[in-house]
Amino acid sequence: MNFKTCLFYFTFFSTFLFGQITGTVVDQSTGKPISDVNITSGKIGTATNESGEFSLDVPTGTELEFSHIAYKTFVQSAENGMYIALTSLVIKSDEILVRAGLTDESLQKVAASVTIFSEENIRHSNADHFQTLTDQIPNLNWAGGTSRPRYFQIRGIGERSHYFGEGAPNFSVGFVLDDMDLSGLGMLGQLFDLNQIEIFKGPQSSVYGSNAIGGLISLRSNDPTDEPEIATQVRAGSDKLVGSSYLLNMKLVDGLSMRLMSDYNYSDGFRENLTQNVTNTNKRVESFSRLKLNYTGFKKLNLLTTIIYSEMKNGYDVWAPDNNEKFKTYSDAKGEDSQLTYGYSVRGHYHISDNIQLISITSFTETDLVHAYDGDWADSAYWHDNHGFDPADEGWSYSFYDKNEKNRANLTQEMRISFGSLILGGFSKHLKEQDNAAGYLFGGVATDATSHYNFKAKAGYLQFGTELSQSLKLNANVRYEQNQYDYTGTSRGLNDNWEKVGLPSVTFKTDESMLGYRISLQYLSDEKSSFYGTASQGYKSGGVNQQPYLADESRPYDPEFIQNFEFGLKRKTDSYRTQLSAFSSTRKDQHVSVSSQQVEGDPNSFLFYISNAGSGTIQGSEWEHIQTISQFLSFNASLGYLKTWVDKFTYQSADGDAFGGDREAAMSPKVTGSFGLQYKNETGLFASITLSYKDEYYFSDSHDQKSEPYSLLNLNVGKSFGKTNVSLWVRNALDERYVTRGFYFGLIPPNYPDQLWKSYGDPRQVGLTIDYNF
Questions:
Q1: What pTM did the predictor assign?
Q2: What order of strands is seen across the sheet that includes strand 38-41?
Q3: Sign (positive/negative) of CA torsion 412, 415, 418, 422?
Q4: What share of the chain is helix, strand, coil (3-state, %, to 5)?
């Protein structure tokens, strides 16, 4: 056999043994190609070009390692036509990515006021729930009518509660967890294994729709990786606190990885019930589990699936007829604030070409809620001994109870396609809610009631960006949305013979269209500084009032709109990062929720009513700063200033026409701020201190009672021992008494004078947390 023949056979067989493997490497989040990715197998290697493409002469099935300084290392068996999507690393002192928008974007280049809590921030705070972090966010407030914050207000916009009779599940501040819409369900704020929290302030309707007229809170957990990881955390503290968390991350097969976590928390709830002689009537019993699957094995497709299950069996016992600041209660009926939620989301990312990406996001959640409480806050012996109330003399018993059970199912589907900087998308949502309530409903008219909401939304949106010059960029968003509410309600009341009779049933339908937009100009003066200005319109859908005796013309309320102008500065250097924004807004057809006591002496006889109050204004500013002082020491500070105004409006009370407005909006403190110091040295010793401040604010649009200003001090100190971290923490270290909710009505016999009734936030709590990573 001559030389040419041997060379032919060698070349022929080597094409089978050592075929040329080709492929493309892209960023998992953006779909954009990544250059200079190292692909190696032993001593053989290559790198991707500017288009993210590579070729390598290795046999099919050879294990290839893909590595890049800014991305997590990825390993996959070789095959021709490979499509590899790498997950970015968060590099300290490098850019922070904002991930809740239509595209991932550097915080430095986002033309909006956004507060970010990174995984490291969350870990250093030793917080186990979002509630602990809320006081560090400028111009954010929350209403304490439940065992955990469910209802948030940003820049003075947001609901305070959602009792039966308060209308549709229609919220002003969005709350999203791993692509699942949980607006109005903020109790799901567990922080274990969270990657990032993003709080957008100001109207975000052009991107996120009707539930974001005030802003958006987005929680995103860590995605699965191929690197094996096992972690555990245990907690113990005062108020009988015990808790534990577990994490398992592993590669299942090539292209498929899994991340599974579980979290459990128990505490007594800081209350001593003297009537029942127990300390757990306000308990927190909270469990949360999450499974994530990341699939990247099929060419140009990436699928990220998240499944959650949460069960909160919390009590609710926070009110007392003596306004007791020592956390002692007298209720004789069981209060409950439970929430059972399960859901899933599937995010699919298909890389059509370098400039064309297709994204599909599907989510579904179903939640069972129970909110129940002792309406008169005490037993008969308390009322007799302290206020001389005798049922035999009065002819009726001082005993009230209210219970509301909700089932909410929410299905959303979003599709978007991007052509470079142009993004086109469509969105649909179908939400169903059924309420079953018993107590003294609709101002004492009904004893029990059932309501059915059927909400449908469809929207189309567009986002476009262009560079007007090397340093000037224009961005524009527009969103058109159609909403439809179908409501059916039935209720029963008592006639003069104390017999239950049916009240007028209610069937009502609303159908409305809304438009939101956002236009921004951003000027990059250099790599460190940027300035931006935005003009935007946000919107919130209307709804239906449930009261059976309302006239049809008074039953619906129209959508609300807000026009917002904002200007901001962002600057980042090696030693600090700062952002400053100023804003001015006008609210049109503003939603105002009012309530009034209808029956003297009946603390549950409140009539809730939502109407369009006319107009209002908002002005203010926000500043956030992070500064490195030395190798071991840094500090952060935030400051929010808010000036709100609600025009005068009228509503119906038990005494006829009543007036509201002509003053600042409820739940809108003028000044909010925080200051924190963090220390960590090379021996593993770490410590942090955080001081927050919140100014006074009105509790409601229905009365003029205000809170008192307060400050909270949180401390944390610990030590790292290899893979183990031990930390001692104190929340509300100065044991400040601060009010989270206030009502104003008559409760005390025999004259039932109107008084301010308060519920208080958590007192001081001391605890120990131990983390271990295997």
A1: 0.89
A2: 44-47, 38-41, 63-68, 71-77
A3: negative
A4: 5, 60, 35
pLDDT for residue 127: 92
Q: Which residues in 375-445 belong to E strands, given as ranges?
A: 401-419, 422-441
CA–CA dist 310, 290 (Å, integer): 9
β-pair partners for 450: 436, 490
Rounded Cα distance, 609 and 729, in Å: 43
Which three-class secondary structure state does DSSP give residue 209? coil
> Could you report the per-residue pLDDT of 643-655, keeping only the tens digit for each?
999 988 776 555 5
Beta partners for 679? Answer: 633, 687
Give which of 466, 467, 458 is closest to 423, Cα–Cα.
466
pLDDT digits (tens, 9 = 90+) for 108-150: 889 999 999 999 899 888 899 999 999 999 999 998 788 999 9
pLDDT tens profile 411-435: 999 999 999 899 999 999 999 999 9
Asked whether the beta carbons of 354 and 401 are under 8 A apart, the reply is no
Residues 609 and 170: their CA atoms lie apart, in Å, by 14
> Which string of b and e fits 616-627 if b means at least 16 CB within 10 Å?
bbbbbbbbbbbe
Distance CA 718, CA 769 (A): 9
CA distances from 513 to 183, 204, 262, 648 (A): 21, 17, 41, 27
Residue 534, amino acid: T
Dump pLDDT digits (tens) for 593-637. Answer: 776 555 555 555 556 677 787 789 999 999 999 999 999 999 999
Residue 17, exposed/middle/buried by CB under 10 A (0-12, 13-18, 19+)? exposed
pLDDT at 9 over 80: no
pLDDT at 371 over 60: yes
In Å, what is the CA distance from 742 to each residue of 158, 392, 415, 545, 648?
16, 32, 43, 23, 22
Using the structure block, give the residue that is written with the tokens 């609901």: 159
Which pairing describes strands 328-329 and 272-273: parallel, antiparallel, or unpaired?
parallel
Q: Is 624 within 8 Å of 138 (Cβ atoms)?
A: yes
Residue type, 690: T
Q: Locate 687 and state its tokens.
A: 């410590």
Residue 339 identity (one-letter amino acid) = Q
Lookup: tokens for 526: 């250099």
Strand ranges inside 188-270, DSSP E: 194-201, 215-221, 229-237, 241-253, 256-267
Identify the three-state secondary structure at position 5: helix
